[in-house]
Amino acid sequence: MIKNEQFDNYKEKKEKISLEILERDELKKLIYQDSNIPDGRFVDPDHGGVFHYFDLDEVINPLNQDRMVFPIIKENDLIVGIIDMEYSPTQERVAWVKGVSVDPKYQDKGYSSKLLEKMFEYAQRNNLILQISKYGQTGDGEKKLQKPTERLAKQYGVKIINNN
Hints:
seven-stranded mixed β-sheet
């Protein structure tokens, strides 16, 4: 685990919220929990998974061993949001943001914003340039993230490059 940050969210009940940056093997261990069968929340959404912009095959693929990191957010020790980041194999210091997903049951709590902020902190600390992928069936992921990523890029002094 690279860094763990915890804070409390006081609404109707006290919820333990934590943010972490996980490497591929750490995430894989959490998803599979010493089993051959993954936590069903991480499978393809067409098969009951909840993370619409997350690809479990990329976590399983051994070729991605050192190329991927995953900012995650947990509520009461349950992963409720994840960012899929991959280091470019051809461009030094460039990381692709391949998807930002929050479990629909946990949306509208600001978790995407917290994840994005964690990602920019990580990018700043590691002197990375970010490239937001055109993820999603309609390629709308980049558009959805444009305003918040531009704001955070300025705030953290992180460069963003276009897909064009």
